[in-house]
Design a protein that fits this description.
- The protein has ten helices and no strands.
- It has two domains: 99 residues, RNA polymerase sigma factor, region 2, helix turn helix motif (Rna Polymerase Sigma Factor, Chain: A, Orthogonal Bundle); 77 residues, Arc Repressor Mutant, subunit A (Orthogonal Bundle), CATH 1.10.10.10.
- The longest helix has 23 residues.
- It is mainly α and 199 residues long.
- Helix 7 packs across helix 9.
- Belongs to the sigma-70 factor family. ECF subfamily.
């Protein structure tokens, strides 16, 4: 582990323990990125900074739930995305275009988040390993339904016919799979749901 990596690791542990100096370190490192991210979608620098401030307040309040340094970035961008979408919803008055605009903005936000969070090859390999292990740990039938739905892009009716179960059973297995994965992959939840759980 190099000096910078060790320092960030120690700072992260201090942050988890509630040390304000550690929080300040991450605040200075990430605030401008989050504010710049927000301003692209709310078109108001002051409002973007307000949303970024809210993201950091929420990060501090939930610091015990963050399991890694990358988890900090994921949390901040996820929260900022949610607040940006809320801001757009509350400030668009032309209902005719509202849904299409929101869908377009949400796609842009998802792409921006993925582009903004930097993962090296080892981290991506580790993330892939965690995803695969979590899927493999699902109950057999639940795993089969999940793979057919998310990786083979099959419709519920097709899955029900192939597995000779009811549509309700397919829906129940998908709900169960997503609930289990949400718990196991909570630190990378937003990224996981963009990469493998998004329709």
């Amino acid at each position: 582990m190099n000096i910078n990596t060790r320092f960030e690791s120690e700072t992260f542990e201090s942050f988890k323990k509630g040390e304000e100096a550690a929080f300040t370190y991450f605040y200075h490192n990430y605030f401008s990125r989050i504010a710049s991210f927000c301003v692209q979608f709310v078109y108001d620098a002051d409002e973007a900074e307000n949303l970024a401030q809210e993201a950091f307040i929420n990060l501090w309040e939930n610091r015990e739930n963050i399991d890694s340094i990358n988890g900090i970035q994921s949390f901040l961008y996820t929260y900022a995305k949610s607040k940006c979408l809320n801001f757009i919803r509350h400030n668009k008055v032309k209902d005719k275009f509202k849904n299409d605009l929101l869908n377009h903005k949400e796609r842009e936000l998802d792409i921006e988040v993925l582009n903004s969070i930097q993962f090296d090859t080892l981290e991506l390999t580790e993330l892939e390993r965690i995803i695969n292990e979590s899927i493999n740990d699902l109950p057999p039938k639940t795993r089969e339904v999940f793979i057919k739905k998310r990786f083979e892009n099959k419709k519920n009716a097709e899955i029900a016919e192939e597995m000779q179960v009811t549509l309700k059973a397919v829906e129940a297995h998908m709900t169960k799979a997503l609930k289990i994965l949400k718990t196991k992959l909570s630190d990378y939840l937003f990224l996981i749901f963009i990469l493998i759980c998004n329709n």
